[in-house]
Amino acid sequence: MKNFTCVKDLGDLQVALKEAFEIKKDRYQFCELGKNKTLLMIFFNSSLRTRLSTQKAAMNLGMNTMVLDVNQGAWKLETERGVIMDGDKPEHLLEAVPVMGCYCDIIGVRSFARFENKEEDYNEMILNQFIKYSGRPVFSMEAATRHPLQSFADLITIEEYKKTARPKVVLTWAPHPKALPQAVPNSFAEWMNAADYEFVITHPEGYELDPQFVGNAKVEYDQKKAFKGADFVYAKNWAAYADPNYGQILSLDRSWTVDEDKMALTNNAYFMHCLPVRRNMIVTDDVIESPQSIVIQEAANREISAQAVLKRMLENL
Amino acid sequence: MKNFTCVKDLGDLQVALKEAFEIKKDRYQFCELGKNKTLLMIFFNSSLRTRLSTQKAAMNLGMNTMVLDVNQGAWKLETERGVIMDGDKPEHLLEAVPVMGCYCDIIGVRSFARFENKEEDYNEMILNQFIKYSGRPVFSMEAATRHPLQSFADLITIEEYKKTARPKVVLTWAPHPKALPQAVPNSFAEWMNAADYEFVITHPEGYELDPQFVGNAKVEYDQKKAFKGADFVYAKNWAAYADPNYGQILSLDRSWTVDEDKMALTNNAYFMHCLPVRRNMIVTDDVIESPQSIVIQEAANREISAQAVLKRMLENL
Amino acid sequence: MKNFTCVKDLGDLQVALKEAFEIKKDRYQFCELGKNKTLLMIFFNSSLRTRLSTQKAAMNLGMNTMVLDVNQGAWKLETERGVIMDGDKPEHLLEAVPVMGCYCDIIGVRSFARFENKEEDYNEMILNQFIKYSGRPVFSMEAATRHPLQSFADLITIEEYKKTARPKVVLTWAPHPKALPQAVPNSFAEWMNAADYEFVITHPEGYELDPQFVGNAKVEYDQKKAFKGADFVYAKNWAAYADPNYGQILSLDRSWTVDEDKMALTNNAYFMHCLPVRRNMIVTDDVIESPQSIVIQEAANREISAQAVLKRMLENL
Questions:
Q1: Residue ranges of the Aspartate/ornithine carbamoyltransferase carbamoyl-P binding domain (chains A, B, C) (predicted)?
Q2: What's the pLDDT tens digit per position in B173-207?
Q3: Rounded to 5°, angle at Cα B133 from B131 and B136
Q4: ipTM of this model?
Q5: Residues A261-300: tens digit of each pLDDT
Q6: Cβ–Cβ of C84/B303 closer than 8 Å?
Q7: Deepest of A44, B78, B154, C137, by most Cβ within 10 A of its Cβ?
Q8: Which residues of C are documented as binding site for N(2)-succinyl-L-ornithine?
Q9: What domains are there in chain C, each with its CATH number?
């Protein structure tokens, strides 16, 4: 595996899961693999879980790590040719990106959708520039359209807790006061489709995700219907994808908040969320504090997914 | 030792001091102890000495370190249940804190008194939330009411320089243009009482510290009387503790500045301060530059106190 | 070598180059040298290449690294004696600097010219305070008047690409929208003089550099004449040095931009720049993207120059 930006990069998911569980048994057993290898983590957006879990994963493998925090929007790179650079952009990406590649062996990049230009977001401009110009293997630490380290951790968690071979997994939209990217739901949908679970997406009308991610999922606009018989409920907010509302909040309807009444419709489902989560918007206190809530275990698996990915990338150097 | 927040956690001080001096002889002799162990340092307030000395101590022990700078006040965690989180707090501490615990073995926390609510400050709300919810051993890198790594370094320094078994140690208030927490003087008092030195606290009326920290110390309102025969003078500013003036500046009286005339009253005392220090407010240039000033040696011992604490915590994992 | 602030500190350049090429062959061969040694990197100005390359170099040598970002201008240290410190400066350098030295073995400092006071800039006040008061070996990660790690990397690069024993090297001024320090051109001139190449400096009138750096270089005000027969063209902007224009922009004349027509006058010269570079101000897209452009290779050598310097300093501890 050279780059890691989506589920396809992992190849056979069963093999990848086996490697992940092997790592989880003893996360220090491969600590020689990363010796004299350096991970550069570049954050165009702030991070807590992703930074800590990825850095921890790299250190488990014996890697050196360097973190570069690019102030949100403050580091403006010119991307066009022919521009007379006498304005606020001090550097061209064609110099900046290869130079960063000089000082490391693997690059992780976090760069969210900006909701300014849908095409630019969905073309993953920044991530792809690193892949094209850095000269190094690159992995996503959440990009504009996907968050594959999160989705891989989600998959690991479901495999750990599932009671049937092919559980019913429900991705449900829930309200949130700010407009959030579709990276997590897109990516989760992509991975659930690849894992071949029974997969249902439920959201208010207008919140349809990009069809390339929805894939074979069943889309159900009635949240209660969707929850029936669910083994896992995965809650997440996202802003609208479809034109002309791209990046807009269409609803703050708290009747979509996941509560005990709705969870009672499920097959004693586990509750999941990528965190951070706004309580009593996305989910009630009672549900997230219940024994069926596995949000902390899910977050803990971020270290495992990152380590499995880094291990593959190190082996491929 | 599981957590480290105050002098009691160390147990027998003579044993702890012996361990500290053992470390100081060769600070790399325990570099295998921290192998594959990760320290997460969380700063709710900025830091220079504490961050560098603690990180250095952890690296001396072979630990990996991660630093999380929480912009002052910018990371607002919800702490109540039942709140509809549609405002400026994006995360509840009941998710945030356990997740941070997932990615490390030991957590250091710095969180100052805010002077907004005396009860909240003196209950050590933030530090205690980490102890209660992180699932990891926690130590204070200066909390609202105590700065035990500083006090331990102070104790080590006094033991190195003292010329009698039971020296006279004077903690003196001195003026400062900003309102400062009582963490350092509280903690120093607690440790001096525990060390059973002859201990005197001197300050203008109105600056009385919390009696639980004053303990058996003699409180003397006449600074010159207090200095007589002192072996160590420990200067520090703090804002008022007693109601209704909690967190207020009551005096900027520079007649309390430590100068050569006052030091001449002592038993050729050593001068100490936790740094940073404002010259000619707290202490004159002449005194802090004199051979009796041991502020740099005291700061250097911050690495030793942190390493002794981390060593204990690692041994207890 | 104790400190490293200018070319003289390296001694015989041929020996230093030999060491650098030895490192480049296998940059991990000295990974035991830095064991239990800590590098503290202090940035008074922001950095990308310097921080990453120096940190990487230190890790290649097995060192621990700590980074201290001093917000631009935000950390104000008092430097005078006798001042009553009741204002915005919370600490005196005579405490701050020695304490930083306590927690590390080697200190790297970045501190640019501020263009507020020419004498202060050219006296290298901040860098020299660290040398004088930190108690540790200190190296420059770009100071007010020199950028020796850059110049050493430049020298390494020229040695790698030169086709004759004594190539013709041309340092050319080029326009830039902001006033930039003279550290890079000063330092480059100093190193080129020391390397005894055929060295020409070209710039508009008024942009004369400090004669102590110009040394034996030929100064040519006609850029095209200067370029004739050049083997290396090193472009860089700088603000005026000579009084009364110190720190001022005297020209934005884009006829000084390095383009293909001018490069055609050279002996098929290589194009160099320290980066970041503003395209179509300093150099056209065509030139910087041409096969003769070695700006990325030059940047990559920053790791090598830093490692050669750190290796020397470690050997001298």
A1: 2-160
A2: 999 999 999 999 999 999 999 999 999 999 999 99
A3: 60
A4: 0.94
A5: 999 999 999 999 999 999 999 999 999 999 999 999 999 9
A6: no
A7: B154
A8: 142, 176, 236, 278
A9: 7-146+302-315 (3.40.50.1370), 148-299 (3.40.50.1370)
